[in-house]
Amino acid sequence: MKRYSAFAIAREALKGHTGWERAWRNAQPKKRYDVIIVGAGGHGLATAYYLGKNFGITNVAVIEKGWLGGGNTGRNTTIIRSNYLQDPSAAIYEKARSLYETMSQDLNFNVMFSPRGVLMLAQTEHEVRGYQRTAHANALQGVTTEFVSPERVKEIVPIINIDGPRYPVLGGLWQARAGTARHDAVAWGYARACSDMGMDIIQKCEVTGVTRENGKVTGVETTKGHIGCDKLGIVVAGHSGQVAELAGFRLPIEAVPLQALVSEPIKPCMDCVVMANTVHGYMSQSDKGEMVIGGGTDGYNGFTQRGSFHHVEETVRALVETFPMISRLKMLRQWGGIVDMTGDRSPILSKTPVEGVFINCGWGTGGFKAIPGSGWGFAELMATGHSPLTADFGLNRFREGRFIDESVAAGVAH
Amino acid sequence: MTRVDLAIIGAGPAGMAAAALAARQGLRVTLLDEQPRAGGQIYRDVDRAAALRGDLLGPDYTHGATLTAALKHSGVDHVSGAVVWAIEEGFALSYTKDGRGAQVMADRVLLATGAIERPMPLPGWTLPGVMTAGAGQILLKQSGVLARRAVLVGTGPLLYLTAAQMLRAGTPPLALVETATRSDLLGAMRHLGGALRGWRYLLKGLGLLAELKRGGVKRHVGATGLAIEGLARAEALSFSAGGKSHRIACDTVYLHHGVVPNVQAARSLGIAHDWNAAQACFLPRLDIWGQSDVPGIYVAGDSAGIGGAKVAEEAGRLAALHVAQAAGRITQTELDRQAAPLRATLARERAVRPFLDRAYPPCPEALAPADATLICRCEEVTAGDIRNYASLGCVGPNQAKAFGRAGMGPCQGRYCGLTVTALLAEANGQTPDATGYYRVRAPLKPVTLGELAQMDQTAQDAAE
């Protein structure tokens, strides 16, 4: 792999930009691999990357039914934060956030991580108490957050209206080192690094079956034929239930469309991310100047990656009160992504009833921020059978009642 | 919320004719249209302009007044100035009028959204002073405005008509630069038999050409190497024709190489589309009544395939009849009886189309533009960029969005969609059908957040 650098740009500029290589090879499947990861989104590619980087396992294929990064990786609102309530969550999200800080250097690919700060608005007395509690919990976990006053909120976000009649701002939970990153670049950066380690990224290859012998996985049937493997990682947010079914087990998961929209671009007016959980809306300004707005989940289960207006109108109505200046902005695009919901709103990173099959799913509405931490922990789990990062997120927690309740900190009313 | 039997989008010939007929059959009809007055593009502002400029615009234009008159007395709820931006299942149509959002529910929907001009990406086409011939028509019909030093570039009957209208107005174009060749015309001759059934069109075309010749309008045929020159605005058109290179200094360039169906609404509903090689565009898959594979959704007029105003009118009526039958207002026998004369007219009016399609094919240089030419104006993506995405593994238009944002700007992909599909199909060696098209989603037209927010309020007020 040719490294990207200022020198490389200068050299290519002189050569008329003819020497750039493909970022990743377009691979066709081999007969078998040590590890197959199903799903070339952020989580799947990160898993493959850390399998190679941390454990030297490079005989790996990442297979994808569409194109890489085409699922929720390309559909989220790119928020990165780690101000969760429970210790296991704070640990994995903070690991992820800290990995994001050095990701561009690590991958030699600019993922445009922007630690611009995330502000979660407290708009009811209940939320004030909840966020004060989270701030205390974060202090104990070593995650730097603070509960700030309405006046401080106004300082951080000058365009906000803190005196709204219906949705006043009573304070906020501020995480200064949280932020955003370019979502596609995260997938592309990992894919390039994986390909460089000799891994095969196989697009347009849908898994149609999981072959097993004596309760142990032997490979996958795909639209490009049978591919053998010793270990199989299922990382297919939105369709986890279907792929798990192919492997012969069930998951405590519901699939729900989550809504997002984006406005026309305007000049810079808001340099942090604001989340308003009471109204389940969150907003940031993209580098292009568009206001990126995340909405709530649809009120029903579904698999369509389309926009719907059931909640968007409600979300936008509340946001327009909180940010009066956005009312005249035009909405350009709206879309949905299929999110995996677990009962406790925490992910599942786990072994499964089938030996050699591992599952990484259930990230709900907040998977993007977790990508590097999830990949780090899941790779360790797949390589060694145990990871301190994922230990609490096993499937058996639902049988044993050890829930990791994050229904508040997950950020969106469910 | 209002619930109607039939909602029609677009008050052009198809929409107006369908609305009037459906209302006459006793259906409750809402006709939503973006313009302040009925007419569509072809009969734009006909009620006002026919009296002011009817002689200039010709009798084909003033015919539109019969449709607007029938609409006025039909009892149709004609909502003008309404921009429809979402059609959801059931069917709920969301639209904006006077800065306020509103919704109407309909059992059936007729999409009569007409055509858009085929984008003509040539070097320099984004310079100020360059517009489509259709835009020129809008200026003329609505405001009586014409450019003084203009060149008409491209292919198709609309160019002749525009040139003739300019001539009649006393501001003839500097030149008519046609990209169609004499061999195109020869190739079209095998369709002449069919075209003779539509002899009125041919006669009209010959009449226009004769008028242009009499008026001394300079014509260049088979032009290639087209480029619009200028730094801050269009200053000249350069091209080769007849073995010589030309350069015509001008202020305005009117571009036109045919129109294509506006399929945004149909696409957003998930209606199946097929590539039509003769018209070089996608057409919605419809039954003989204009009903799509989404039951209850009909498409008529140019949005179902380019056929012109007369075809649109009758196709609109045909769809309206079928809706009336489906709603139990008329019997199957009555439907067939009333449909027969409409079908006869349709066959006659459509007869000339294969000839026109063959005689005036789209300009090849604009279908596969040079690498440096912008094809997505909103996001400034060039044809070379798209080819480059293909070499990086981009298989379709939706993935192209992730690579370089083509189609993600305010026009919602209307302007670059066909070009992106064509470029990717060519680069990947695939058919347009296999390459596909943008997955069009609401909002079909940009809607402000304020309008969206206030819709929720309206719904709540209604509930309370």
Tell me, rounded to a whole number, the average pLDDT of chain A. Answer: 92
Give me the Rg of chain A, rounded: 21 Å
Q: What is the overall number of helices of chain B? A: 19
Total domains of chain B: 3
- The rounded distance between the terminal residues' Cα atoms of chain B is 13 Å
| Major sheet details of chain A | 8 strands, mixed
CATH class of the largest domain in chain B: Alpha Beta
Note the quaternary state here. heterodimer
Greatest interface and its residue counts?
A-B, 34 and 27 residues
According to DSSP, the number of beta strands of chain B is: 22
CATH architecture of the largest domain in chain B: 3-Layer(bba) Sandwich
Distance between the termini of chain A: 44 Å
Q: Into which percentage range does the β-strand content of chain B fall? A: 15-25%
CATH fold node name of the largest domain in chain B: FAD/NAD(P)-binding domain
Structural class of chain A: alpha/beta
Radius of gyration of chain B (Å) = 22 Å
SSE string of chain A: HEHEEHHEHEHEEHEEEEHEEEEHEEEHH
Category by helix and strand content of chain B: alpha/beta
> Which regions of chain A are unreliable across 5 or more consecutive residues at pLDDT < 50?
none
Query: In the CATH hierarchy, what is the superfamily of the largest domain in chain B?
Result: FAD/NAD(P)-binding domain
Structural summary, described in words:
The complex is a heterodimer of chains A (414) and B (464). Chain A has 414 residues and is an alpha/beta fold. Chain A has helices at 6-14, 42-55, 87-101, 103-107, 125-141, 150-156, 183-196, 240-247, 312-322, 371-384, 397-400; strands at 32-38, 60-63, 79-80, 118-122, 146-148, 171-175, 179-180, 200-202, 207-213, 216-222, 225-234, 254-265, 273-276, 281-285, 290-297, 330-341, 348-351, 357-361. In chain A, strands 1, 2, 8, 9, 10, 11, 17 and 18 form an eight-stranded mixed β-sheet that branches. An eight-stranded mixed β-sheet of chain A has the order 5-6-4-13-14-15-12-16. In chain A, strands 3-7 form a two-stranded antiparallel sheet. In chain A, a hairpin with a 2-residue loop joins β10 (216-222) and β11 (225-234). By secondary structure, chain B is of the alpha/beta class. Chain B has three domains: 2-116 and 260-330, FAD/NAD(P)-binding domain (3-Layer(bba) Sandwich); 119-257, 3-Layer(bba) Sandwich (FAD/NAD(P)-binding domain), CATH 3.50.50; 368-430, BFD-like [2Fe-2S]-binding domain (Arc Repressor Mutant, subunit A). Helix content of chain B is 41%, strand content 22%. In chain B, the strands form six sheets. In chain B, strands 1, 2, 3, 4, 5, 6 and 19 form a seven-stranded mixed β-sheet that branches. In chain B, a hairpin with a 6-residue loop joins β12 and β13 (236-241). In chain B, α7 packs antiparallel against α13. The radius of gyration of chain B is 22 Å and the shape is globular. Chain B starts with a strand and ends with a helix. Chain A binds chain B through residues 22-23, 26, 67, 69-70, 74, 184, 203-204, 263-264, 306-309, 312-314, 316-317, 319-321, 326-335, and chain B through 86, 88, 94, 392-393, 395, 399, 402, 408-410, 412, 441-443, 446-450, 452-457, 459. β16 (330-341) of chain A pairs antiparallel with β22 of chain B.
